[in-house]
Write a structure and sequence with these properties.
Helix content is 31%, strand content 15%. The chain is an alpha/beta fold.
Length: 303
């Protein structure tokens, strides 16, 4: 979703860091008490699964909402020296009737490929209100969800990177700007300004509800607007260096213009690695050139 099309999404005041409670087996889930029946993990795509899977009892919970997730581990041959790098993947905010149900449906496949081909631990998950995750969308809530996902990986790796698509990229920037332990950020088709989304919150709420992310209380309009402005992609990008920052954008992206990518790169004082893909549009998740650029970047920065 673009802040220039359907009502935009915005910032969240630097959210309170999600609580991470130690899990029974592998890594501590950030969160508190688990609510109703867990939605379970994101279904792994058909084909060869990662070498190992995470114990089912490990949960990803934030603000009492269980989030569906898929953790891909590299096969033993790739991870021979031990896995040192972890990646959290933040999906976009696709809109349109029923779009929430499939917002992250193909990301487990991407996580599996990253784990298999780069040796990274890769976590894909659905934000609250998307897929089978509990809760309803809110800018600040999604930002806390991302923080919870980062905390889930921390105990298993030496460094955690975050990659975000579209609106998910703005959240990746914000999360890294308030958490200096996030080691690097990757952006794909990410807007540089969410202010346009904050000017018509009522319409934004209607679009989000139509997509199936849950209905918001009209009384939350002012908070949403403040949260969107606080995400501040440009200001967040400025504090990422000297950490690695990758910006991938399609030259024919009609939802988020190429000028946004250049603005984010400039905000990072030219330290960002900007890659423009000729003729590519906004849906970079399925562009093999974008995936190849992302994989190469991860391999160069493997811990």
């Amino acid at each position: 979703m673009s802040p220039r099309d359907d009502p935009p999404l915005a910032a969240a005041t630097p959210p309170n860091p999600p609580a991470a409670g130690p899990p029974p087996a592998a890594g501590p889930p950030p969160a508190s008490a688990a609510p109703e029946a867990p939605p379970g993990e994101l279904a792994a795509p058909a084909g060869a699964p990662p070498a190992e899977s995470t114990p089912a009892q490990v949960s990803l919970v934030c603000d009492g909402h269980r989030l569906e997730w898929h953790l891909a581990r590299p096969p033993g041959s790739v991870a021979r020296g031990g896995v040192r790098s972890g990646l959290v993947i933040a999906h976009d905010l696709p809109v349109g009737e029923g779009a929430a149900a499939t917002a992250a449906v193909t990301f487990p496949e991407l996580a599996d490929r990253i784990a298999r081909d780069t040796g990274w631990l890769a976590l894909a998950f659905s934000f609250r209100g998307a897929g089978r995750s509990g809760g309803s969308f809110s800018p600040a809530g999604w930002l806390r969800d991302l923080g919870a996902a980062v905390e889930l990986l921390r105990p298993e790796v030496a460094s955690v990177f975050v990659v975000g698509f579209g609106f998910g990229g703005t959240l990746a920037l914000r999360a890294a700007s308030v958490d200096p332990t996030v080691a690097g950020v990757g952006l794909l088709g990410t807007p540089s300004d969410l202010a346009p989304w904050a000017v018509d919150i009522e319409s934004l709420m209607a679009v989000v509800a139509d997509a199936g992310y849950g209905r918001a209380d009209p009384e939350d309009q002012e908070a949403w607007a403040e949260d969107l402005r606080a995400i501040d992609p440009m200001g967040s990008a400025a504090v990422i260096p000297p950490r690695p920052l990758l910006i991938i954008h399609g030259s024919d992206d009609h939802e988020v213009p190429i000028v946004d990518a250049r603005a984010l790169s400039d905000a990072a004082e030219g330290v960002a690695e900007l890659r423009v893909i000729p003729t590519a549009g906004h849906r970079l998740r399925h562009d093999p050139r974008a995936v190849a650029l992302l994989m190469g970047w991860l391999q160069r920065h493997a811990g």
